[in-house]
Each structure stands twice: as structure tokens, then as C-alpha cells.
């Protein structure tokens, strides 16, 4: 018998702006011991289906159809009945480990609470079992850690605690809603490994909700693809990912940036030629070679030309004494005219700090920053402002990057108001239209307010604003990380075209190695404030020289299940060899 | 950050605040008609005496020097002499302050004990009939001037229904005051009602915010009931900002005590202050201002310490 | 790295509400649905009309005493009776209301303006300037307002203008904390960082971004400040700091009628007391409604 069966499930929400049909006619099933991945972009309704299976939808939801968990109907079920199921028959792991735990209760107590919710267990027994669970999810020194508060644990550790709470009562169905989206890629690999092992050990069925195709390839047995509330395709993971049938699935897979991977040393993978591209290559997308052709040749060999931005031996320290945080430690980064440099690393690597130093937003504690040849420390007043006018900035959050009180035209024209005050309004209007064309947005958007735009459109407006002064350097800090994959594809295409046309240099910060591989000619790998290695994208990302970079690359899941299985085996073998 | 470091930092900040208060009081002292000379010599001082005093005391010295001397006097507990009662102000305050603290303390405790559960309950039953009723009542009570409220209570409970006395028990010591607890009821209730109104709103808002948090969803996913979640998780998380608010509400509480003591003739510091104002007894006035402000600063400090005890993150991150 | 995935189709209703995008229309709609707030607004309008237009419809003499008419209960001639010197109470209510409302509203706005300036400068500049400015605010908050007012009353008796300044002076502290908090949040928004990175000035950041985005917080703070100020005006007359006879305000009426209340002449204190409660309540309800409509945190 299936552990979860939904039949024609429909969910509608009553909001301030009317009724929203989030889910329509969704029928799926999860068998014991198998993992079903529910994939889709934002607004697809996948998280809503997951919450419905737990009876955790908000009060303004109306549910139709049926959802049966281990024989119990969940739709419109009474609260006491649902409470008996939650945490014992079916449990859930959520996306944000930072806020998922009660900040004022120790983690051991929170796990014990779940145990005691479903059985007459004494406090001391529950506490002991909590320690066992912490051990099972891989937390070192579990007895001591049980007494810790959530803020004393890292993101990955907090997620492990949430998983411990979820498996505490040996549930038959585990629902994981984007369980690794908020985590670093290496931590993500560990958490996925943990979930897979736990599910396999106990024969638990897993409903995995995610937007990441690589995670799907790594973990799932079957896949259901959702688009705007409906399921458009279902099937085994290899069928759906390697031989998609529905148009949307094909488009979605084509838009995913593929990490080209070199065959691992001894455990040589197959594939055509020395470089195995990770799946069907889209026509307008990445080329089989791993990086774009550098438009200005090999920068290392260029004689004499000063770099556009040059960080020399820069260190940045926040705070003092014992609590000092060394965000950057003596790093050297240079970006030359016309080239794109990708800055990659996990959280805490200092990549965003480095970008902000290049922008002049953070003053380095030591070392120097040269912008267009001039030292930022000595440049003053008008000279300094003139330097700044050569920079364009695009930041991560599409909502916060534009002032909601200004129209799109005003947002884009702001750099003009700062640096070209003498410009006539007709000229300004013309320039705004020009940049809107360049980012492929309709000119009519100029009079709209940012809240009427989608995330991708907002990021393109941000890009237009960055270009309005014809900058020589564009600094982009995770410009597409908050966007859906298909939207990301458009924005990156636009960015690439613009760079080909206008020839500006670009400092591109990202945690997504696949994106950086497509986009940058040189890449700088950072870790805890230090540069691990740097070089051309081809060399560094296909044939890394440091262990860290190798581990980083090995941890990125690729959307090809066959290839991913091999990568995973290789990775585990490497880790085992290290431990042995 | 360790507790010791956190505490030291907070104490230093509190001291800075107290210092600024002394500057304010000092400025007021010098803005008075007659100046500080009157404060020491009394109302009946002749101009000649004043000039002599000024010279002897160095009141022709630059202000900063005088301020330092003023601070020095404060540190020895010399707050001047009352014009009307001819006693050292410090002594008067020392007699009266405990009574005021007791009255406000009881009002505060009563207020919190009622406000916190009411606020939480309102949040759990949001937009129900009881929530609206309680909200409306809260609005009315914190829009009512304390003296009007007290007056109404007196008329209803002392005149129309002769249940309670309209005057607080008089007496010089705390023990005497406590001999007639019935007389304390109306003053305490007057102070507590406004506090209940304000803090039930705070608690309601804080609880509502916490109910939206992710950890509530995690607890619910683990099978906990709403009652359990409120009790075990939401309560403590909602309490933290409310405790912080307590520090800021202290001055309001003391201000209210001023009016209440006058209305009910309660022999505390508020009444002393009131009488001093009627007779332009400046030394007493300023001495009271200083002492009550210090009491508030200390109270805020204690509230912060309490907050750091409830919430272990406060020590780790707060400035 | 947390993916707050924005909805793709423009204007599509989504479960994720954009942060800074509460348009005016949405705010107005939310306000209209808040019964208490709407009632509050209506009450304010009615009472303002009552105080300022009322005397034309119900003219009474509020300057000359008429001892022969003193202490009469409510009747057809005097709807709310007369006070100890013969003034018609209903008329006095309108007359006093003008002062209470004018002083209250003006003082509330003054307090908000000063508080906004102080708080935004402290929040924006940061560092030790912020620390010092906030310690001053802490000191001001530590001294109970009523105490300061009573001290001032022992020194001088101000006119209406002086009263507004004094009340504003004791009230600007709380809004300054609110605006400082708002400024701290706003100055780290991406659009401000972008502006600074490309060379925008501090003045531009404050004038074009920080202040316009703080408007909703400021308006809400101002509404609550007016409510507090009107309440404070009532206290102030009770403390003896109020306007001189024959002018009066509601607090003054309460103060004058205090002893009479014990002897059963309820019409001397109930009307002004209720008037104060009603108006302050109404402003608080409107402030609450505005805050929910704009989705402003704090207070």
C-alpha cells in the first residue's frame, strides 16, 4: 500500500487580492522505501502540496480532493487526528534551519518533546533517546551538544537537529521541503547523504520537494514535475531527467546550468572524450567546452595594461580582540579590462566582502584597492566620485535592489542624477530607453512601479541601472541566486550579450559553480577569507589543484542521474580514503 | 560575550545616563529664580547673605567647576535643604521613597500578572469577541488620565458603594501603611489598570508575531498541540520584548504614582514632590527628580539583566 | 544564499508578499476594514467639528462670570449645567476642547519632527555619535515627564505657544528611538548600498531613499504622539501648568471641578473626562489602524 496517495488534490487560498488556485488536480503516490521528488519553480505549488499532506496549511486555505497518508485521510481531517499523525507517521524537514528551531530551548529538549508527544515516555528516557538521535544524524559529541541552544550551532548542524526531530518516532513518510537550499554545497551533499542513508535503513518513503535538478538526480527514484499548480510529467528519475517528454520539462532541464566535469583520476568515468558534459546540451546554452572564449585573450600575458580593479594584499577584520572576525586575509584579486572574473566560495569565504571592498563600501583594514588605476585611499572628492561613476552594481535581492517608492525610470536614471546632472530630460529619456532595450525589457515598463515586476524583470532593471553610465566594470554579487532557473537563464544570457557588445569587465560573485563556469574566464576560489586557488576557468574547475576545490566540485550534484551516481560513489570513496 | 562583560557594559551605559541626568538637574538648578543660593540658605535669605554665599561657595566660578562641586555634594548624599520643611532633602526622600516603591511595585506586579496571560490569550483567540472586547477596554484604560480614573474609582467604590476607603493609610513607616490594606486597594488598582492596558497590548502583539515564526510550524509538525506550543515555546519568546518594554515603562509608572499619591493622599515620594511644587520648594523638587531618575535607570538595568537571563542570545550579540 | 524566490509572472498573486511594496491603495483598503480605526477617525472628525464649529451653533459666554447662574444642573437652558462661576459647561467643553486639541496636535507633531531628526541622524551616522545621542535620549526617558512638567510649573506659567514647546520637549524621545531603528534597517538596504557604491552622496541617500521610505513609520508615530500629547495636556492643567483663566482646556475643567465631584456635581467632570478619553482613544485606534495598514513594526 502506498504511504502517500493524493487524488485530484486542489488547494485554493483566500487572499487580500482575491482567491488564488495554488494547486489543481494533483494525483501522486509515494511507495514505502522510495523517494518521489516534486520539482518545480516558484509558484508551482509544490510546497503547498507538501504542507497539505501534513495538514499544516494556513487558515485561509480550502482543500478539495483527497490525500491519504498510511490509510488516514488528511484533507479536512480533525485536528486531534492530524496531531496523532504528525511527528509519528509522517514528519517534515523544512527549508530554513536558521529559524526552524525555538531559539530559547536547548536542542536536546526540542527533540525530546517530539518523542514525548507520541507516547508515554519519561523525561529522562526521552532525553537519552534524543542523544542517540543526535548521534545518528552525525553530530559529534552528542551528549554535550544536546544541551546547546540553536544559535550555538551551524546551519548544517541545525538542519541535522531538525532531521533528528523528524525521524525521532520512525515515521513511515518523511517530507523534505527544500531541505538543503539554504545550505552550502558541501554541507548539502552531506545532508542528502544522511537523508538517503536514514531512509534506506528504515524503509521510509520520502517526498522530496525541490527546485534543484541536481538534488533530484542525486536522491530521487521517481520525479513529478509541477507547473503552476498542476503535474505535467511523472516518471522514473532517469526517464524524466534524461528523456523528458513534456515541453516544460525540456525547457526546465535545458535552462539548468550544467557543470562540466572531468573524469576523476583512478575511477575514470565514461563519456565521450576527456570532458563529460553533464547531460543533454541545450541549443542556445553552454558549449561543450567548459568556459566561454575569452574575448580579450589570456589576461596573464597582457603587457602593461593596468587592471580595472586591483585588490592588493587586502585584509578586512571586523570587531576586535578575541571576537575579531577575519573576513579577508591578505588577498590579491585583479580584474582586467573586458574580462569576467568569477569569485566563488561557500558562506564565510569572504567573497561578498571582497566584492564590497572592490566597490568601496568596506574599507580594508590593511592593503590597498586600486580602481581604474587610482588608489581609493588617496582619491578625494570629485576624483573619487568620477572613479565611482565607472562602476555598475547588481546585487542579489530583487526586492531590495530597487526602491519601491520610485518608478522604474527613476531607478534607472539615478546614476544619471548623481553624475550627469546637466543632462536634459529628453536625453535622459533616450538613455533610459536605450538601456531598457539592451536588457530586453519593453520600454513601457519605465513608468511602472517595481512591485508590478517579476523577480527576473527587477534584476534586469537593476542591470539596466548598472549600465546607464556605460561602466567599465560591473560588480555582480549573486545576481541570479534568488531567481528561478528559467529566469536565471534569461538574465545570464542578457548579461553575456551585453558584455560581448559593450566590453566591460565583470567581477561576478556566486556560490553556483556551474553558473560561474559558463560565464567567467577566470575563477578565484575562496575559503574562509583566503584564496584557495585561481586561474582560468577551464583549468581551475576541470583540473583543480587543491583538495578543497576538488571537494567543492565533487559535491555539486549534476542533473544526470547516471553520472551523478558515479560521482557520488567516487566522492564517498575519496572521503573514505581520507578517513582511513 | 560572558555575563560579566555584558553586565559591565550595561552598567557603564547606565552610569553615563545618570551623569547626563545630573547635568539636566544642574541646569534646572541654575535656571531657577534666586539660584542655588536660595536652595541652601532658604527662602528668607537676604540679598547680602546671598552675595556672600555666592562668593564663599565659588558660585562666581565657571559653570563646569560648579558642576563638579555639585557632583561632589551629590556623592555625599547632600541634596540640599527643603525650603518649607527645613529638613535635609535626602532624609525626606529616604523616608518616602520606600513607600512609593512599594506602591508602584505592587501595582506593577499585579499589572503584569494579569496583562501577560490576557495578552497571550487574546493572541490565541485573535479577532474573536473576547479579543475585541479586551482590545476596546485596553484602549479606554490607557487613554484615561490617571487622576480621572482614580476619581471615578473613588466615587464608585467609596461614595456610591461604601466598600473601600478613599484615602490611603497615612503613617510614617511602611509597617503603619500596611496596617490598613483596604486603603491600598484603590491606589494600587488605579496604577495597575493602566499598566494592564498597555502590557496586554504588548504581549498580544509579541505573541502574534511569534505565532508566525517558523519554529511554531516545526513544533506543530512534530505533533504538538496549540496549547503546548504556546506554553512551551511561544510564551518565553514573546516575553523577551515585553520585559525590555518594562524598563521604558518605569518612568510612566512613577509619573502615575505622582498623581495617584496626591489623589489618595498616600505619604510617598510623589506626594512629597507634589507639595513641594505647590510651595516652590526647589531643593526638594530637584532632589526628587534626581532620585526618581536614578531609580528608573536602575530599574531599566534590572529589566535588561532579566532579559539576558531569559534569552541567552542577548549576551552573545547585543551592543 | 537563501532563495526567496520571487514570483515570475508580473502581478501574479503569490504567497510571498514583497517587502517594501505596500502600495497606498492596499493600505487604504486595509485601514477601511479595521472597524475600530474607522470609528476612531469618525470620532476625531466629529469632535473637531464639535469644538470648532459648535460654538457657532450653540453660542455661550465663556469670558464673563455670572455668579447668579452658578452650579446649576443640566437643564433645557444649559444642556450640561453650569460651573462654579456660571459658565455653561457644554459651551466650555467646546471652548476648552479647542485648546486641548490645538496644543495636543501641535505638540505631537513637534515631538515627531524633532524625534525624527534626532533619530535619523543618530541611526545614519552610527558609531560614537549614535551612542552619545542615544544616551541623551535614555536620560530624557529616565526622567518621568510629569516630574519635569511639575518642576516647570513651579517656575513659570507659559502661554499656549510655550505649552506646545514644553510638551514637545518632553515627548520627542520615544519617536527618536523608533525612527532610529527604522533608519538602521533602511540604510543597509541594497538600493542604498548600490547608490553609495556608484558615488551617491549621503544627502541623496537620506533625502531620496531613507526619508520617503520612513514616511509610514513617521505618520504612525505622529498619530500616537498626538494621542499622548492630548493626554499629557489634560495632566498638565491638573498639575497647574495649564492656560490661565478665563481660557481653559479639558484638563483645566477637570481640575476645577474636582472638589465639586465629591459633592455630586458630576456634570463638571464627566463631560471633560469623557471627552479626553474619547479623543485619545480615537487617535490611538487610528494609529493602530495605520500601523496595521502600513505593516509597520514597533511601539
Offer a few descriptive terms:
heterotrimer, B: 319 residues, mainly alpha, 14 helices, 0% strand, globular, C: 299 residues, MetI-like fold, 13 helices, 69% helix, elongated, disordered N terminus
The value of Rg of chain C in angstroms is 23 Å
Helix/strand structural class of chain B = mainly alpha
- Characterize the biggest β-sheet of chain B: none
pLDDT < 50 stretches of chain B: none
Biggest interface, chains and residues, is:
A-C, 69 and 41 residues
Instruction: Work out the strand percent of chain B.
Output: under 5%
**Arithmetic mean pLDDT of chain C:** 82
Reading the helices and strands of chain C in chain order gives: HHHHHHHHHHHHH
Number of strands of chain B: 0
What does this 3D model show about the protein?
The complex is a heterotrimer of chains A (580), B (319) and C (299). Chain A has helices spanning 46-54, 79-85, 107-117, 123-136, 142-145, 155-167, 185-202, 213-219, 237-242, 247-255, 351-359, 381-388, 408-419, 425-438, 455-467, 485-502, 513-519, 537-542, 547-555, 561-579; strands at 4-15, 18-30, 35-39, 61-69, 72-73, 90-93, 173-177, 205-210, 222-227, 230-236, 309-318, 325-335, 340-344, 366-371, 374-375, 391-394, 473-477, 505-510, 522-527, 530-536. Chain A is α/β, with parallel strands linked by helices. A six-stranded mixed beta sheet of chain A has the order 6-7-8-3-9-10, with helices on both faces. In chain A, helix 4 (123-136) packs across helix 6, helix 8 (213-219) crosses helix 20 (561-579) and helix 13 packs parallel to helix 15. Chain A is globular. Chain B has 319 residues and is mostly helical. Chain B contains 14 helices and no strands. In chain B, helix 1 packs antiparallel against helix 13 and helix 11 (226-264) runs antiparallel to helix 13. With 299 residues, chain C is mostly helical. Chain C has a domain at 87-294: MetI-like (MetI-like fold, Orthogonal Bundle), CATH 1.10.3720.10. Chain C is built from 13 helices and no strands. Chain C has helices at 24-33, 35-52, 54-57, 89-125, 127-142, 145-155, 160-171, 173-187, 190-197, 202-238, 250-256, 258-262, 270-294. The radius of gyration of chain C is 23 Å and the shape is elongated. Chains in contact: A-B, A-C, B-C. The interface between A and C is large, with 69 and 41 residues.
